[in-house]
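Hi again,

Forgot to attach this to my earlier email, sorry! This is the prediction with flavin-adenine dinucleotide bound. I've pasted everything inline since the attachment limit keeps bouncing my files.
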Amino acid sequence: MALFSEIHREIRRSVREFVEREVEPVADELDNAEREVPPEIVQKMADLGYFGLIFSEDHGGMGMDTLSMALVTEELSRGWLSVGSVMTRMLITGTLIEAHGSDEQKRELLPKIASGERLTAAAFTEPDYGSDTASMQMRAVKDGDGYALRGEKTWCTFANRAHILTVLARTDPDPSKKHKGLSMFLVEKEPGDDFAPPELTGSPIPTIGYKGMKSYSLAFDGYRTPAASLLGGQEGKGFYQLMATYEYARIQTAARAVGVAQAAFDAATRYAKERVQFGVPIAKHQAIRHKLAHMATEIEAARQLCYFACTRKDEGARCDLEAGYAKAFAAEMAERVTSEALQVFGGYGYSREYPAQRYWRDARIFRIFEGTSEIQYEVIARRLLDDR
Ligand SMILES: Cc1cc2nc3c(=O)[nH]c(=O)nc-3n(C[C@H](O)[C@H](O)[C@H](O)COP(=O)(O)OP(=O)(O)OC[C@H]3O[C@@H](n4cnc5c(N)ncnc54)[C@H](O)[C@@H]3O)c2cc1C
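Structure tokens for the complex follow:
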């Protein structure tokens, strides 16, 4: 059976058109100026339905499959990683709500998230606990008809622009409870750089890449959230609820990596055909043509791993292993391919004049977020060595 239907091909065509028209002409300038993804681009993505692609039509989504989500992600990230990453947040929060939310949360919030009326951000990581999710310390203490949040989160990307922070917090202070003491909250806030001092403050973290999204350190000092914001109305389930989003998030991250690597390959190929050294285009020198051939091979391998994970997910099968293969391989592939693309540009690759440096700076994040490579390989090893 062919992997792609006519609908998939049409999705790819239409996203590519959007990216060529709206994203590619501005990506370099905005990234070099460290400016965020403009609100108009976010709104257009919302209007095109990108934030609700895989949510059911009953909940305001488009009811599409995982493969469609990967295709959209790949094409957006090919234009600018930051653009392909805006939808990640709505994907994570929406998936959490669709899988574990109360009927009211599904009815009230999901259509707004799908339509972009409510933007979201994920606040899981803490300064002292990143990979070790089960040990997170931020507290949510019962306070009248709601909860008071106290503690710190870090690396909360898009926190300034979000209306909803998806926050993992400890409702049971007993340290022996570990992951069983964690709960997930859908915390409302006003969008903007000011947050809500003194109960909620935030400061952006300077980064080497991923410039169109700002990631924030957040301090909660008694910020109140109503009881209705507890995901599914259940305390102590946050860790398990989060696990349910990992397959989608890792597939989507693999697709982002493929998109960035493809963009780097395209730019390097164009340059190699134009740049003349020793009287011929450098694409005629074997070292360069084999470099490009190797890059293309690696990209295609990562892409197929990603699509394979999508197919498994769309068949309704467990696919943490396949999503792990795709994420781990694509992350490392993107780092190698973007570095080689920069090499093809020679000295110009190191300048801000060409986009090769942007792809390279952006690609370095893939081995770190959505589960570091080390954690990813541990998850894979556990499935292969311990579960069988
Ligand atoms: C640009 C950016 C955006 C991000 N966006 C978000 C976001 O929106 N929301 C959010 O919640 N988080 C976000 N993160 C956080 C990201 O998910 C974490 O950085 C990541 O989970 C790793 O956690 P850590 O940085 O604390 O590293 P640590 O967990 O301290 O790891 C440090 C090193 O030790 C290794 N290590 C740790 N434990 C083990 C182990 N058991 N075995 C082997 N090696 C191990 C790691 O692989 C890593 O190499 C973002 C991070 C960045 C850089």
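The beta strands are 120-123, 139-143, 146-157, 164-170, 182-188, 200-204, 215-226, 276-277, 280-281. The mean pLDDT is 97.

That should be everything now.

G.
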